[in-house]
Specification:
With 479 residues, this protein is α+β, with helices and mostly antiparallel strands. The chain has three domains: 289 residues, no CATH class; 114 residues, no CATH class; 59 residues, Arc Repressor Mutant, subunit A (Orthogonal Bundle), CATH 1.10.10. It is built from 15 helices and 16 strands. Strands 2-6-7-10-1-11-12-13-14 form a nine-stranded mixed sheet. A three-stranded antiparallel sheet has the order 5-4-15, with no helix packed on it. A two-stranded antiparallel sheet has the order 3-16. α7 packs parallel to α9 and α14 packs across α15. The longest helix is centred in the middle third of the chain and has 20 residues.
């Protein structure tokens, strides 16, 4: 039987406010454990929470950017469960009345636009962080760091519209890109500022009813999300083929083994006993405020992509890649401002630049080659100072050392040879060394012309001007 997966994602994104959601403690990452706490975020008796207006504004921004309806009335609720990193014994979240509902995100699937529904976006406070380890005496320990407790979160719940691990990865990348364009979340999965849980089930193709779903946790990269979903889909299909039932449960992704492992079953699932938080008044969002936030929205990825296609006359595929991250789009436009040939800039960015960044697992905002340096190198190619082949070496040296392209070319002696006499001498050497190929070329094997170009480039260590080589070589071979 042919099956299809049904996937829905729940994403938690930390908001980039300077203070926590219900108190004035700092949200700075990486400080000494338990130095950014107060009676409110640690749940001391008698303390009272007060909502952070900036956090609400950021949540409204995300709602508008994903075409959600901003609810005029939303309500904070207590989500009760007990865990060592939750000092209050409950999390403040939203349940029946979320902040934003009914939005969507569009992704590209096989060259066509696919719409993924967003059911709801709600606000909540983050829990603390547990650290596990062992002492030199092999005694195990668990520490609790409450610095993260109370950091503002938005939870974005998608509809069950995703049909493959690749679509899930594309949706997450697009959502992260929107958050980064809005400058309300760093989107760093390794630091936990962008976290994803996945609900996945399989069903026979063509059936409308959903299968039994499992929830996947502990995935801290897009690749891990895709791998975990891939494994879980195969596991569920194999179980159904063997006549077994899929159990509704929460499963963890084991990175080392590449498998999902059962964490808890349905019978152990928590009853959170939601009820309105008596310490927080209902949140009423004025339409004028929503209008003000809407006016401040930046150019978002889809809008920027359309502008890049129109303004810079680059292919849709190029524009899709170049606008996938805010920093990437900025780099491109900055480079084009210095070297106004967009397609050439795009080719170098999508080829050499992204290849180096991917190899080093770096984001473009940490790239050692600045937009100005790349533009200067491209100008040197255009002027004929260096050849395209030499430019590859110049770029690698720029990426490795961060040096100016002009200095590299000067120090390495890579200036392009434009002297016709020198090029003609190199051509003569290539012809003298390959009499058989010369004879074959003159008998009609014109494909050998590329062979001779290569031989001349070897003679000149790639520094000869390609245009001059072609012109002079043709004359010489016809003589």
């Amino acid at each position: 039987m042919e099956y299809e997966p049904v996937i829905g994602l729940e994403v938690h994104a930390q908001l980039l406010t300077r203070s926590k959601i219900f108190c004035g403690c700092s949200t700075t990452f990486g400080e000494e454990p338990n130095t950014q706490t107060c009676p409110v975020c640690t749940g001391q008796p008698g303390s009272l929470p007060v909502i952070n207006r900036k956090a609400v504004e950021f949540a409204i921004k995300l709602g508008l950017a994903t075409s959600c309806r901003i609810a005029p009335y939303s309500l904070f609720a207590r989500k009760n469960y007990f865990y060592p990193d939750l000092p209050k014994g409950y999390q403040i979240s939203m349940y029946e009345f979320p902040l934003a509902v009914g939005g969507f995100i569009d992704i590209m699937v096989d060259g066509k636009k696919k719409r993924i529904q967003i059911i709801r976006i709600h606000m909540e406070d983050d829990a603390g962080k547990l650290k596990h380890g062992e002492t030199p005496e092999t005694a195990s320990f668990s520490y609790v760091d409450f610095n993260r407790t109370g950091v503002p979160l938005v939870e974005i719940v998608s509809g069950p519209d995703i049909r493959s691990p690749e679509e899930a990865g594309d949706y997450l990348r697009k959502l992260r890109s929107i958050l980064q364009y809005l400058e309300i979340c760093t989107g760093d999965m390794e630091k936990g500022t962008f976290r994803c849980d996945a609900n996945v089930s399989v069903r026979p193709k063509g059936r409308k009813e959903f299968g039994t779903r499992t929830e996947l946790k502990n995935m801290n990269s897009f690749r891990h999300v895709e791998k975990a979903l891939e494994f879980e889909i195969k596991r569920q299909m194999a179980a159904l083929e063997d006549g077994e039932e899929v159990v509704q449960e929460t499963r963890l992704w084991d990175v080392d083994q590449g498998v999902t492992i059962s964490m808890r079953g349905k019978e152990e699932a928590h009853d959170y006993r939601y009820f309105p938080d008596p310490d927080l008044v209902p949140l009423r969002i004025d339409e004028n405020w929503v209008g003000e936030v809407r006016k401040k929205l930046p150019e978002l990825p889809d809008e920027k992509k359309e502008r890049f296609i129109r303004q810079y006359e680059i292919p849709e595929y190029d524009a899709e890649i170049l606008t996938s991250a805010r920093a990437m789009a900025y780099y491109f436009e900055e480079c084009v401002s210095f070297f106004p040939e967009p397609k050439i800039v795009s080719n170098w960015m999508m080829g050499d630049l992204l290849r180096e960044l991917k190899r080093d697992e770096k984001e473009i905002d940490h790239c050692p080659v600045t937009p100005k340096h790349l533009a200067e190198m491209l100008s040197m190619i255009k002027k004929g100072t260096i050849s395209g082949k030499i430019a590859k070496d110049v770029f690698e040296e720029m990426y490795r050392t961060g040096a100016y392209p002009e200095d590299i070319v000067k120090d390495k002696g890579w200036v392009q040879i434009l002297d016709e006499g020198e090029i003609e001498r190199a051509i003569q050497k290539a012809i003298d060394a390959n009499p058989k190929q010369v004879e074959d070329y003159r008998k009609g094997k014109e494909k050998l012309f590329g062979f001779f170009v290569g031989e001349v480039m070897k003679q000149t260590h790639g520094k000869a001007n390609p245009k001059l080589v072609n012109e002079l070589l043709k004359k010489k071979l016809k003589a």
